Amino acid sequence: xxxxxxxxxxxxxxxxxxxxxxxxxxxxxxxxxxxxxxxxxxxxxxxxxxxxxxxxxxxxxxxxxxxxxxxxxxxxxxxxxxxxxxxxxxxxxxxxxxxxxxxxxxxxxxxxxxxxxxxxxxxxxxxxxxxxxxxxxxxxxxxxxxxxxxxxxxxxxxxxxxxxxxxxxxxxxxxxxxxxxxxxxxxxxxxxxxxxxxxxxxxxxxxxxxxxxxxxxxxxxxxxxxxxxxxxxxxxxxxxxxxxxxxxxxxxxxxxxxx
Length: 259
Fold this sequence. Notes:
single chain; six-stranded parallel sheet; Undecaprenyl pyrophosphate synthetase; alpha/beta; 50% helix
């Protein structure tokens, strides 16, 4: 069998497997909100014998394809962790390259005009032009009827909780509430109302690529009752079948919400 016929047969088998996977995921058991830790870009680049920057660009190129898969599956909210607060400590040259890739990625998503973008993270820690671009992206896509995409840049779970508490204290200070009064009335939902994702459903499913089995603080508050799926593939190699396997694993689980 020559190479072209072999490729054609492989594509046919792959397509059949995809359809079978999709049929195993009942619509009523699909997640509304999917969070993704896009991990493994640098290790993918190392295996390819190329630069870290090339790995990050390969990972960025996967995002539009992934969001299309989410649309097909009826996912309403997607949170993409593109850059952590820890990543802000990388060498200046590498960080500048990362910011450029993120800015190009966000600009590309705006041009797609398919999704509403919402930046989540400590924007005050980012370069001014990056922060401004993220805010402008949110404004430019606010009226789009597509799904909501949280773009997590300069994001850290601990920092988010600190920012939420700080905002909560500020709001009550302006209302004249004393600390003693606040201590008496404080409930978890009061903090939730000040998170970066306020008003959104918590993630049902969190996916991390590259084989790492930890959350690293991603959506630390919101993921208390989430289901987790860890995939061995590096993010640039993450395939549609990998996504469908994650959805199938989610659909097969009996969610107990902490019980």
